[in-house]
UniProtKB/TrEMBL annotation:
Assigned EC number: 5.1.1.13
GO molecular function annotation: aspartate racemase activity
UniProt keyword Isomerase present: yes
Organism whose genome encodes this protein: Mesorhizobium robiniae
Cross-referenced Pfam families: Asp_Glu_race (PF01177)
Name recorded for this polypeptide: Aspartate racemase
Family affiliation: Belongs to the aspartate/glutamate racemases family.
UniProt KW keywords: Isomerase
Amino acid sequence: MIDAIPPPSPGLLGQRKPLGVVGGMGSFATAKFLEILARKSRVERDQDHIPFICLSVPNIPDRSQAILVGSDAPLRQILERAYWLEKVGCGAIAIPCNTAHLWATEIKKALSVKLIDMVEITRQAIEDSRGSEARNLRSISIGTSASMHNGLYAGQTESDFGKEFYRSNPKLQKDTIKIISDVKSGNMANAQDNLTRLVQAVRSFEPDKIILGCSELSAICGDLAYDNDIVDPIDILADACIDWWVAESQSLPDTLASRS
């Protein structure tokens, strides 16, 4: 039996700096991201998983509403959490929230460690998968009002998909917001059914790619994630975090890496 809790040892985090995760936007989506990260790591022992510190304090104001009214209140709180993670020793920061990446430039400037930019790596993943064809792809992104209005991933217009899409777009946005709200309130079954219907509606406009531009959509997409036309930024973010960790491990001398 331990009589007293010992203070943290200098080697608690090992020689390699862990991943920092700014969570709570929303909490269920953060949990699903961490699940995906663990599942995709493909390791055989607990000790071989990517070490991370997740700070999930969910009292950050609604990102979409703030952006639509020109407020940066969420940015200040996101930075507070990212600073905290940097201070405790994290070597890179991941933010499993698409809308928060509308402030990616400001976040990168404020941090001294790497922000694994979900929007940037998603665009790169699409380009890598299609090569020279990528610039001609017709993509539709579904997500929060702010991400759709600001063209976070794709700026879909009447010239891209025709007048019928332009007329239908407000309903698609309204349906997407309802799904996101249902996920946040725990109404998963209803949200999953409605997401399937929404994706079918979007497919009627024949896009090359449908980007799940909100982490709540990624969290409930299920088997849709395996469809060739679906792009899941949360899945891509998990891959990028693993790539970062592997690269960091390889950059260490063998003697230090073996002790971590």
